[in-house]
Design a protein that fits this description.
This protein is an alpha+beta fold. The chain is 40% helix and 22% strand. The strands form five sheets. Strands 2-1-13-12-11 form a five-stranded antiparallel beta sheet, sandwiched between helices. α4 packs across α5 and α5 crosses α6. It is globular and about 65 Å long. It starts with a helix and ends with a helix.
């Protein structure tokens, strides 16, 4: 009898609920989707570049996807970066870059040029604008299919036009689903990647190394991803996942105070999540 009491009482005493600076946070057990922590988890907020998780998900879900297919970098992608002062993979106009390389450029340095290239490649239509619109449509269709009921995308990269939003719970659900893809898992756990592209003259260009913006990959043992986000409206966001003791915890913090604070928030939630799972 004593042992039974101790076993049921100990977890509640041992694990105190953490405090986070972020406006919203959510953590779940990846194995079964069970909620481990929630703060403002269903509040609709700007997502910043965590949007790119869905960009990658849509690309990796394409039928008969050839990751080695080459995409020629257009001036429009470069102009877009400049016009929006956006995060960039520093892709060079005229270079041929593989879909696989674009996915690394999308998820590690958070390249909005890579996002544009992928949307242009995998959307349908006779004009670039039509293809981009089509791709964003695929993002929203996928969100609905995953039960992300409080999510809407109006951009391929998180630089929204006023109606790009999600919730900490929905983004966690998205990350959990995306992590089922071996290609996605390989990309988001990579700390650094150097692409070799083909120039317009046919020579090989070694790009500057892309470094993953997710600080948890270096600071938190067992981290397997997923994606940072930031912006004037979004503040500082992080969708994260880590594995330990045969268990995987996935979560999201939205609208934290700084790059350092979002990592601190995520670390507290991961520690709490693993403690809850025992």
């Amino acid at each position: 009898m004593f042992a039974t009491v101790a076993l049921t009482a100990a977890p509640a005493q041992a694990v105190s609920t953490p405090t986070i600076a972020a406006k919203a946070g959510f953590v779940m057990n990846n194995a079964n989707g069970a909620q481990l922590y929630a703060k403002g988890a269903t509040t609709k907020l700007s997502t910043g570049s965590t949007t790119k998780i869905m960009t990658a998900k849509v690309v990796l879900s394409q039928p008969n996807l050839n990751l080695d297919a080459k995409v020629t970098i257009q001036k429009a992608y470069s102009d877009y970066i400049v016009a929006n002062n956006a995060s960039s993979a520093r892709l060079i106009v005229g270079d041929k870059v593989t879909v696989r390389q674009l996915l690394y450029g999308l998820m590690l340095p958070s390249g909005c040029d890579a996002a544009y290239a992928l949307a242009d490649k995998f959307g349908s239509g006779t004009t670039r604008a039509a293809r981009v619109k089509s791709f964003i449509g695929k993002m929203n269709t996928t969100a609905r299919s995953l039960g992300m009921t409080s999510t809407h995308f109006d951009s391929f990269d998180g630089i929204g036009n006023g109606s790009n939003y999600s919730t900490a719970k929905d983004l966690t659900k998205l990350a959990s689903n995306a992590l089922k893809s071996a290609n996605f898992r390989a990309i988001v756990k990579t700390k650094a990647y150097t692409a070799k592209t083909i120039t317009r003259t046919g020579s090989t260009r070694t790009m500057g190394t892309w470094t993953n913006t997710n600080a948890l990959l270096s600071s938190y043992s067992g981290t397997i991803g997923v994606k940072t986000g930031s912006g004037p409206e979004a503040k500082y966001c992080l969708v994260f996942a880590a594995t330990g003791g045969g268990k995987t915890v996935v979560g999201t913090v939205l609208a934290s105070a700084s790059t350092t604070q979002r990592a601190t928030d995520a670390t507290r939630l991961l520690n709490y999540g693993f403690a809850r799972l025992g």
